[in-house]
Design goal:
Chain lengths: 325, 144
Amino acid sequence: MADHVHAGKAFFGRSVVSAEDFTKDEILALLDAARSYDRFEDGTPSFQPVPATLQGRVLGLLFFEPSTRTRLSFESAMLRLGGSVLGFADARISSFSKGETLVDTIRVVEGYCDAIVLRHPKEGAARLAAEVARVPVLNGGDGSNQHPTQTFLDLYTIREAAGQLDGLKVGFMGDLRYGRTVHSLASALLHFDVDLKFIGPENLRLPSDLRGQLKQAGRLGAEVTQLADAGDLDVLYVTRIQKERFPDPMDYERVRNAYRVDREALAPLGENLKILHPLPRVNEVATEVDDLPGAIYFQQSRNGVTVRMALLDLILGGRAGAGAS
Amino acid sequence: MSQPRDYRLHEGTVIDHLPVGSAARALELLGLPREGSITVGINVPSPSQGQKDIVRVEGLFLEKHESDRLALLGEHITVSIVRDGAVAEKTVLDVPDRLLGILACRNPTCITNEEQVQTVFLKQGGFPYHFRCAYCERVSATEA
């Protein structure tokens, strides 16, 4: 634990571009810090009342692409810590629509706030922004590349629900090829002793570089096309299969229904299975699954607030800064 | 009867051990022809390679960014600097671990293809070279 506390200080003033930039101890420090914001009363999750450690601090939210969960949970996190937010949720109302470059936008906005959350359609935008900004930049998703805070909240959700991260059998189902949440979470899970399995259609299998990374680490488990062939699982991480990935709409329709989980499909996996989904879902998780005790995707979404509270506090030196002084 | 011309290099650079078929690409990378005579050998017998291409350019001395790009053409390429008709310096080209501003990212949705930013690529393993874009993180087999 002492290593985690020390690692937590490594967040101060730091940008968050990719989950791969963080060590295991740093990630565990973040997850420990996030837990301190959670409160359960009679099984109902709520938030611990916390001091306004970020009072007077301003978070810039620059969303060049639509977002519900990421933007609102960052906003909620900052407000719960006593801070304020500014920004835009639509690039059409920014100077981007007048042709202003991202670099210029960042250099302007950094003068208005203490940290910036950026979502941008171009891959690498957050890395570039972090290079030019004088304030920390938090990647809220750069195209199909990285979404590190989603990875952190996924790890937090799995650990809180399963009790630990080591020793788990984690299955990923759906779009394994283009799903950035799958890539990022699978890479982050390499820090832990887990068995990773992949369930998806042939044309949406893992990209070769990630498969190579998993294989090199000795963690590439079963790659199957049917959930029934995946064997035992502790966690099932379901992702949406996007229609635009299929040149032939008929192929999409076939796959769409083949990768839909309902109570019948999940029954053989037992009651202890934890089901996650980064949301939004279309039809890949039947609504009848929502009432299962292991269906924790809405809790997962809510955990985005606590994890982002911890992240903002560590980066901007709220409680962590006070404790360190 | 005219005398045979002297094609020996007096001041310039010899790019040797180019893979067969890459001489034209080497000239293109160097922006040649420009001032100075150029001698190109194609399918030249080579004890070590079987065959090779070779380029000799009078009056040319490579900048680092030029030799870095040439290095992408193959392994074991050598560059000899000739002064007063003799080889003054000979080096085997090596691709640096970080390529700065030399390649363009092939990912059309990479930020480097939109903003004016120097590209950064990280070498992944040996020849044939693959590079990871430091921005979009895509790995690609990259031709010079």
